Amino acid sequence: MENKRNNPYRKDFPLLDCDPVIYLDNAATAQRPGCVIEAEKTFYEQHNANPMRGFYRLSVSATEKYESARKTVQELIHAESPEEIIFTRNTTESLNLTAYSYGLQYLKAGDEILVSVMEHHSNLLPWQMVARQTNARLKFLECLPDGRITEEQLQEGFSDRTRLVAIAHISNVFGRVNPIKRIVSMARERGAAVVLDAAQSVPHIPVDVKELGVDFLAFSGHKLLGPMGIGVLYGRRELLEKMPPFLTGGEMIQSVTRTGAVFAELPYKFEAGTVNAAGAAGLEAAIHYMKKVGYEEIHRRETELTSQALSGLKKIPHVHVIGSDLPEEHAGILTFTIDGVHPHDISAILDGDGIAVRAGHHCAQPLMQHLGISSSARASFSFYNTENEVSAFLKSVEGIRRKMGYGDEPIL
Ligand code: PMP
Predict the structure, then answer these.
(1) What value does the mean pLDDT take over residues 211-219?
(2) Where is the signal peptide (predicted)?
(3) Checking phi first, is residue 221 left (phi over 0); if not, alpha (psi -120 to 50) or beta?
(4) Of 129, 136, 331, 376, which cross-links 204 as Cys (Cβ 3.0–4.6 Å)?
(5) Top mutation candidate among 95, 96, 120, 171 for ligand 1, by most atoms within 8 Å of CB
(6) Which of 229, 207, 291, 241 has the alpha carbon at shortest distance from 33?
(7) Spatial distance between the Cα atoms of 31 and 83, rounded to a whole number of angstroms
(8) Could you tell me the CA-to-CA distances from 185 to 103, 118, 154, 190, 407 in Å, in that order?
């Protein structure tokens, strides 16, 4: 059985190496390998100056680090050019940028915005705002209780008025990959734009924006082993070029007069103010590290751990796992409920055993309502977790109802 010692990646993660925590909240944020922490430190120790501002050596070096990170992101998601990569703070900011700069500009009364019922609030509230301000109609794409979106549901969701689809590549509750290619093809038939929330996919599966055919794609560095405070928006050049800036101020202009301004070229038009260059350097290190591990290895390890956890949870009475029966359809995410136990109690009891899992609505309240629950617990695994950790998790879950005072009899 694999333990801390013989997982080859464990030693790369300083926190995991010195803290006994069994960290199973990787879908919320990943742990950072030492090379990412070092890359941020190196930026401040060796390259620190305000990028894009100075003509002196240090500022040029800071700019080069920042632009090198942009190129690395471009290659990771197979974008056509680095100008299509905008650095933001996180997925939430990337989606808001799209909603404010594209949504408000190009949607109008009577148009339909299609969002799925499983969206994270980050990919719902910006579209609620756009619908309110433009009088476009916000429509929901439904899903089955196990997270599948059927062809019928797609046919019901789309109409001749669909002008924008905003959908998660992988939901942070189900962990299942959504049928994006089919959605893109239905959107194309209607001339609708597709905004993909890739916060939970880029850390787990190879993503190719050209192959998927999406118009916008958003993800966060911190779920991808990278630093907090750095995120990415990919946008198709043709669309980005015609969109107005989201934020205005320094760094995003060519020239300014008392009454107006000429905006900078892509991608700078969308990067107002001093950028997070150290974060970008950290993200670049994270991507290099992830590529060295490889998506195949990540998928293999995560599926093995998920398989062990899923079959273990299924054997525990009163535990209900949300989503697919197949471990490979979970992207390392297992969301579950226990009869008669509030998810906050699940998390608190697991924490008592040194295990960190998430509890709550996972920023997906409409989905919780759709599933007829108010909240749930979520364990999410990464390639640096071990079989021993999953066994400890299962043992702890097994004891939860007893600790809550339930006997062995089924509750009504
Ligand atoms: N979308 C999904 C699917 C997510 O899982 C998350 C993070 N929980 C977000 C968006 C928001 O990411 P961030 O908080 O980094 O902006």
Answers:
(1) 98
(2) none
(3) alpha
(4) 331
(5) 120
(6) 291
(7) 29
(8) 20, 20, 11, 9, 53
Please tell me if the CB atom of residue 91 comes closer than 6 angstroms to any atom of ligand 1: yes
Residues 6+ apart with CB under 8 A from 64: none
Per-residue pLDDT reduced to its tens digit, 321-330? 999 999 999 9
What CA–CA distance (Å, rounded) separates 323 from 145?
7
- The second-level CATH assignment, the architecture, of 36-290 is 3-Layer(aba) Sandwich (3.40)
Ligand 1 centroid, distance to 410 Cα (angstroms): 37
Distances, alpha carbon 238 to alpha carbons 83, 265, 387, in Å: 11, 13, 47
Domain with CATH 3.90.1150.10 in the chain: 10-31+294-403
What is the predicted pLDDT for the residue at 5?
67
The rounded Å distance from CA 92 to ligand 1 centre is 7
Pocket probe for ligand 1: among 87, 95, 123, 172, the residue whose CB has the most ligand atoms within 8 Å is: 172
Q: What's the whole-number mean pLDDT along residues 178-191? A: 98
In the chain, pLDDT over 70 holds for what percent of residues?
99
Nearest CA to ligand 1 atom 8: 28
Superfamily the domain 10-31+294-403 falls into: Aspartate Aminotransferase, domain 1 (3.90.1150.10)
What pLDDT is stored for residue 409 in this prediction? 53
CA of 238 to the centre of ligand 1 (A): 26
Average pLDDT, the chain: 96
Q: Locate CATH 3.40.640.10 in the chain.
A: 36-290
Summarised one tens digit per residue, pLDDT across range 12-67 is 999 998 889 999 999 999 999 999 999 999 999 999 999 987 789 999 999 999 99
> What is the Cα–Cα distance from 216 to 123, expressed in whole angstroms?
12
41 vs 50: CA distance, rounded Å = 16
pTM equals: 0.97
The answer on pLDDT for 216 being more than 80 is yes
Confirm whether 18 is a catalytic residue. no
Is 204's C-beta closer than 6 angstroms to any atom of ligand 1?
no
